[in-house]
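Extended Data, panel c. Modelled sequence:
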Amino acid sequence: MSETTATSLEDLKDVAADAIVPEQEQAIIREPKIDAQGRSYATGKRKTAIARVWIKPGNGKITVNGKDQAEYFGRPVLQMIIKQPLIAADRKDQYDVVCTVKGSGPSGQAGAVRHGISKALTYYEPELRGVLKKGGFLTRDSRAVERKKYGKAKARRSFQFSKR
């Protein structure tokens, strides 16, 4: 190699070393995703339920399929599940939530709404992502019913054995 090439390679290495920034300083700055009506939209999923969720500033009213959340989800446990992300982010009475949900049963639908609210909150206020991620609200729960196999009574159960 010639002397000039080696010098330029060393210069490039120095420039590259200066360009490398520690991971803590490389914070990703996310922009809020808000539509013309001042809402954020997200889709939440759980089992076979799919929830379409819109959040906007308000007084904390949650509407599911045109009904109040207490009317739609009769069990207190399900009502608690859908409020978890708002409580964790300390935004319980600051946003109105409107969602439509279909598929699965009440438990799956509540999980889908919770997932959708969490995602919509991060779109509206990106700085809440850390709190919601730590609480596990942004991870889609991928557990679903195992399919039935041929030659079996259910997914894994065999037919009753008969010796004769």
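Residues 132 and 138 are 6 Å apart (CA to CA). This feature is highlighted in the accompanying rendering.
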